[in-house]
Design brief:
Blueprint (H helix, E strand, L loop, with lengths): L2 H20 L30 H12 L21 H13 L10 H17 L7 E5 L2 H16 L4 H4 L7 E6 L4 H9 L7 E4 L1 E2 L4 E2 L1 H13 L3 E8 L11 H10 L3 E5 L10 H7 L8 E4 L1 H5 L6 E5 L3 H7 L29 H35 L5 E7 L2 E5 L4 H14 L6 E4 L2 E7 L7 H18 L1
Parallel strand pairs: 2-3, 2-6, 6-7, 7-8
Antiparallel strand pairs: 1-9, 4-5, 8-9, 10-11, 11-13, 12-13
Helix pairs in contact: 3-13, 4-13, 5-7, 5-12, 13-15, 14-15
Bound molecules: pyridoxal-5'-phosphate.
Length: 465
Amino acid sequence: MNWDEYAHWGRHIADWGADYHKNLRDRPVRAQTAVGDIAAQLPTAPPEMGEGMDAILADFDAILMPGMTHWQHPRFFAYFPANATPPSMLAEQLVNTVAAQCMLWQTSPAATEVEGVMVNWLRQALGLADVFTGVIQDSASSATLSAVLTMRERATGYTGNRDGLADKGHLRIYCSDQVHSSIDRACWVAGIGQVNLVKIPTRGARFGMDVAALDHAIKNDIAAGHTPAGIIAITGGTGIGASDDLGPVLAVAKSYNLYTHLDAAWAGSAMICPEIHAEFWADVDGFDSIVFNPHKWLGAQFDCSVQFLRDATPQLNTLKIEPEYLKTTGKAVTNYSEWTIPLGRRFRALKIWFLLRSYGLDGLRERIRNHIDWAAELCEAIRLLGGFEIVTEPILSLFSFRCPGDDAMQQHLVDTINDDGRIYLTQGAFQGQKVIRFQVGQFDTTRDDVMIAHAVISEIWEKIQ
Ligand SMILES: *Cc1c(COP(=O)(O)O)cnc(C)c1O
């Protein structure tokens, strides 16, 4: 393909994209294809001869599009959102076009320097103290793994990487029983082990860690000869939005000199609203590491996860490696690949720059506040549906409910709703029971889109009884 053809097809795809997004409400939110439908339509062997772009794009439309679930659909209420605002998509197109690999300052100084400035803009936007620096990663899972590795190395006097873990005993990490599975996986792959991830029960209206139980668990572990390494707190857990009471958790961490990481992958975006920050994050500045995903609620196209660090040194001491071929001469510079596990890096800061400049913080705050209001309104409407029960009250824009019947009935309702296609929601678990989750967060959603969910849920419930 020559560059004139590239430009032609690029314009074609831009037009296609605008039509796609303008007409999204007409499509079912979740793909309606059965397992294997898409693969069955593709040749089993690669082509020997090249084809024209028109043929490739025609197949994309005809074969692949029916198998896509529409995350940008305004009635996407499943999981958490993965908002891709148009300005952030345009930034990604530029990034894809220049196609730089930004592992070192010198492999694209603009990428490194914009990243530094964007982390600082977001730090201010989220109301964090100016001691925090940070780095943009692909996912919260990677940021949490970086933090867990840092806990491991710090607790072993930075000898784990060198000597392995054979004689390190049991390194213990503490979190609530409401954390995301990425915390379990980080402990698996960091060599900590699932048995050494201590899950503390939760209590209170926001299901925060029971700090007395936390303190007790740490004391017992020390008495048993184990080595406490860190505490992972959460703001806005995936299941039901569980949020730890940060100050008391930090006080325990401090009394045992433990490294602390806060997972706010979803809820972090809401902290651009000062009143929400005051409610959830009054003590947040005490954390050593904080992760949030601008690719969820804020509107930066996936993938984009920001890890803030109070002091980057422990993480650099854990992850930095500098073979000869990566050395650069000249002035001291920031090489962000030393802060993370992958070496190669995309220019993710550009979409944040485009996003923040296009909407301003005020435009973004308005959306988040609307989502929270509309979730509360829908929650009240569902409470009034005969026999329905609100299991967990809204935490930000997430609540959970049950219809009458057992767990199988909950799943049946979820599946039937998603087969219908007008809205999309997913199940979760709470206190040993299946619940139906509902979150509001898609960027283009309107109050009408949210309230349609009430009509769809009650209509489908009538039908399946
Ligand atoms: C989404 C989410 C994660 C995982 O985020 P990835 O970026 O997909 O790794 C972790 N924790 C919480 C609370 C989340 O909502």
